[in-house]
Amino acid sequence: MASTTLQLVDRVRDLLIEDGSRETFTDVQVIRTALNPIAREIASIALTETDSSTIATVAGQRNYALPAAIVPFIRISSVTYGTSRKPLAWVEWSQMATETTQGEPGAWTIWENQLQLNPIPSAVDTIYIDAWNGSSVAVAQNPAASTDEFQFTADVEDCLVWGSASLLAAINSESGKEQRFGERYTLKLRQLREKLQPDSGPPASIGVEYDEDAFFHVF
Hints:
- The chain has 219 residues and is of the alpha+beta class.
- The chain has two domains: 102 residues, no CATH class; 87 residues, no CATH class.
- It is built from four helices and ten strands.
- The strands form three sheets. Strands 1-10-3-4 form a four-stranded antiparallel beta sheet, with no helix packed on it. A four-stranded mixed beta sheet has the order 2-8-7-5, with no helix packed on it.
- A hairpin with a 2-residue loop joins strand 7 and strand 8.
- Helix 2 packs across helix 3 and helix 3 runs antiparallel to helix 4.
- It is elongated and about 60 Å long.
- The two termini are 22 Å apart.
- About 10% of the residues have low confidence.
């Protein structure tokens, strides 16, 4: 049976119980500090499908909302421009140039689900985005409420719980728990990787920025 966000939070807390008491982590802390980082790591080894979308550029406009089909995707594999599909170079968001020069775009970055181009496009044309999609067994959309269920498989949920517990144990400076939970997580993650990608590893990462609630909403 699939779990809800709060059920996963409770499973993480149950692993951290010591002497009959719970650790002092709020639901929000468990979600943002542990579940979301571990979900991103799990998703990064489950990239099995691709999808393509386009964006029409506007002269003088730097930023563009990502197509809905791309937003849930974990990694963008390429961004190209115009009918010749000229490849654009990815640049770290913090290093992206901010000058107001207009011309043919040569670089791109992502911030808060927006594609940013440099130079700023000087004409109407087309941006082509190819992205790697997380496998449906490992990546799910945010539910509408904390009581709604994710469609994770049991082995994915186990990875989420053990990995999250290890992260929180580290924050609490509980090295014994951190090691025990971490070893279980490493084993579970290796088994999941073999199941999802028996013949190849994931594609090279090209930076996509995520906020704290990228996988699990804070309710």
